[in-house]
Amino acid sequence: MKGLMASVRNYLTIPCDNYNLEALAEIWGEKKLHFIIIAVIILLDQISKYLIFSNMSLYESIPVIERVFHITYTQNYGAAFSILQNQRGLFIGISSIAVIIIFYILVRYYKQHHVMFLYSLSLIAAGALGNLIDRIRLGFVVDFFDLRVWPVFNIADISIVSGTLLLGLYILWIEPKGKVEGKDE
User: Quick one: pLDDT at residue 11?
Assistant: First the structure.
């Protein structure tokens, strides 16, 4: 218990430029935190989809902020923005391969990569798994966040986009900085 409290104290005093996530990862165990993040996101995604699927009719819309944000139940048989409709096998295959590769990196090479890179992969994997579960279980993805001017989406989609943005930031700013300094992170 003393060790955990000391780690928490250290985490709270680490400067921001050291990415406090690194210290948090030490508290939970370097590998475990990535999988905890994945599990929590999948759990939130699947619970929210279950509640929508079980309690709303298809295309039913509940205004949260009138003409701005609604909860609208839709079924997506395609990929992002409903492209490539009815290609279930293709999406299951691609998602499965991507998740296997990400898990391999998270387990095998976690010490050789920057924490931001690993968290971006964790977010992408969580979102891919959340939507993969829907495709396997239902044959479609349950979407419900409706901004009225954008295609309807879900928590898994938010996770994929967030992970992709984080990965982009890593590729553009952190990885080049590491190479200039002579580090391969």
Answer: 41
> Residue 185 is inside which H or E element, if any?
none
Q: What sign does the CA torsion over 116, 114, 183, 179 have?
A: negative
Q: Which of 45, 134, 143, 146 is catalytic?
A: 143
A 10 A CB-CB count for 38 gives 25
H or E element, residue 97: helix 88-108
Q: Identify whether 157 is a catalytic site residue.
A: yes
Structure tokens at 8: 């928490």
Residue 17 among the catalytic residues:
no
Q: According to the model, what pLDDT value does residue 9 have?
A: 44
Selecting among 45, 134, 146, 157, the annotated active-site residue is: 157
Q: By the 8 A CB rule, do 26 and 8 touch? A: no
pTM of the model: 0.77
Those residues of the chain that have pLDDT short of 50 are 1-18, 27, 185
User: 40-78 burial by CB neighbour count: b if 16+ within 10 A, else e?
Assistant: ebbebbbebbeebeeebeeeebeeeeeeeebbbbbbbee
**d(Cα 120, Cα 176) in Å, to the nearest integer?**
17
Domain regions of the chain by residue span: 29-180
